[in-house]
Prior knowledge:
- The complex is a heterodimer of chains A (530) and B (105).
- Chain A is of the alpha/beta class.
- Chain A contains 15 helices and 13 strands.
- An 11-stranded mixed β-sheet of chain A has the order 1-3-2-4-6-5-12-13-11-7-10, with helices on both faces. Chain A has a two-stranded antiparallel ribbon with strand order 8-9.
- In chain A, α7 runs antiparallel to α15 (501-514).
- Chain B has a domain at 1-48: Histone, subunit A.
- Chain B contains 3 helices and 2 strands.
- Chain B has helices spanning 7-16, 23-40, 80-84, and strands at 90-91, 94-95.
- Chain B has a two-stranded antiparallel ribbon with strand order 1-2.
- In chain B, β1 and β2 form a beta hairpin.
- At the A-B interface, α9, α10, α11, α12 and α13 of A face α1 and α2 of B.
Amino acid sequence: MTELCDLPAHELVAKLKKKEISAVEVLESTFGRIDAVEGRAPSTAPYDPRPDDATRVHAFISIQREKAMERARAIDALIARGEDPGPLAGVPLSVKDIFCVEGTPSTAGSKMLEKFVAPYTATPVVRLEKAGAITLGKANLDEYAYGSSNESSAFQPAPRNPWDLTRVPGGSSGGSAVSVAAGEAVVSIGTDTAGSIRQPAAFCGVVGVKPTYGRVSRYGLIAFGSSLDCPGPITRDVRDAALMLNAMCGPDINDSTAANVPVPDFTANLNDGVKGLRAGLSPDYARIRYPDQKTGELRDVDLPDDIVAPIRRAAELLAKAGAEIVEDVPMPNTSLAIPAYFVVSRVEAASNLHRFDGVKYGHRTSAPVENLREMYRKSRGEAFGLQPKLRILMGMYVSGAQYAKQYYQRALRVRTLIRRDFEAAFDKNGRYRCDVLLTPTTPATAFEIGAVYGDSVLMQYADLLTVPANHAGTPGISIPCGLDSNSLPLGLQILANDWDEATMLRVAAAYEQLTADEPWRRVRPTVLEH
Amino acid sequence: MSDEITPELFAHLVELAALELTPEEGEYLRGQLNGQLKAIRELERIPVPDDVPPAAHGVAFPPEIRPAPRADETRPCGDAEKILKQAPEAEEGYFVVPEIPHTEL
């Protein structure tokens, strides 16, 4: 049965404004769902699995019930007084625990920040709350967002995929995607550095948007790759994503990279259809260079039909609705996006992780130490998990004086080539003149827990189809486009030009409407069928 | 092919990174680093012409969309106590750290 917590935000807000329901009722429904599917709270203690853990989704690191209920009552009071409660009034929001939210533990999924309580709130969260959204909890993630499965979180049990609890939800915004898919939140805010919004959205059958770099302020975000990180929405449908972007986007005095670009009403053109738009298909997103799981050797493989056929079908549907399909758009540097990312993101991550020194905040060793340097080493050694350690070491190596030319400088120049692929595809006077590109979001659907974790090379390749847009800075969205033969969700990725989220959302909304009556849309995550 | 990151080079990196690792962690991490470098060497597969500049970020960021620098005025952070409370050790408004090793310049 559909409960309030299963409805999209725009429907809830409409009902709320008509006083058919109250914000308190919506929140109670959401808490009811959390009680039913969430499971025990995770901790950083050595993980001791219990049988129950495998039957729950574990989306959250912390839940702020009282604070959220207080906010819901305040929203209801506003409505009772006849005041405008905002475009996201009463909408339960989960926040990836990489954002600072004042007064809440803000952990980044790391033991390093286990006891850190943020003294201020990140700009995009402030803006969502100002629009009426109610923060109800902090969602689990890969430690410092370093991963594509959520298995690396220091807080265990880690999130599980609501469609198949033996599988990962994707990552790094895994808890966020799980919470939206399982009705434990109506919308979520995540971050996308290589695909960390789009990939878990695809794995969990929800919508995820990586906006243009600079669209959304990064103030209050615990930084990973500062030239790549993009906060963005995870929602049930495209309209909700547009509503969230309306609230989140725009310049910010606290982030000099938040660009001074006008923010349109992203909901305005959702029903305009696709007539006259040009949608590109690229062979470089269908045949990929991928490591063999046994030997680790890279080889060129065709993506399976399960993954590619729904994208071709989406193109056919959009063509019938009036879009022009552009075949064979070359994106020749796609296969270099992961190798370049291995370098660029590690250098930026290492730089960002130097601030965690056990002095101003975060973990400090309780072991006796001789001096400051030993305190740094012990504190960082004790509190960072394997992924942060790996990224610091790689970042230092490839940017070291002797190696930078070979690695870091070369990776940055390859990044230029990747960017040029997008510029050529979207060039209004060029050969292809695409408005959007249609690709699969991921090379495979959700994989089994434990199947990839530990192999950091293979895990990184999970982001193969999403990371090019992070290098280029361009926007991308993943929307559900069916189920594979294991009944696992598939993602259609729509990529667009700089600052053109509006066209991207319009195409996504058109696809959503064209497939609204398809049977797969009525299938619910298995965790909700019990 | 021999490992690019030898045990000696690895120990140097660990020191630079201000980390302390258990032997098991060290072995795993060194193996992963060498595996990742194999993937990274893919970057050498294609020629990159000399006139291709490095990209510090993807989207062009010309002056017209860059926010104007804000006025150079102090903005009080409010509650300093709240900030200090996060510190593992603080005293009289200062962060307390262990002995700082003496370095000959």
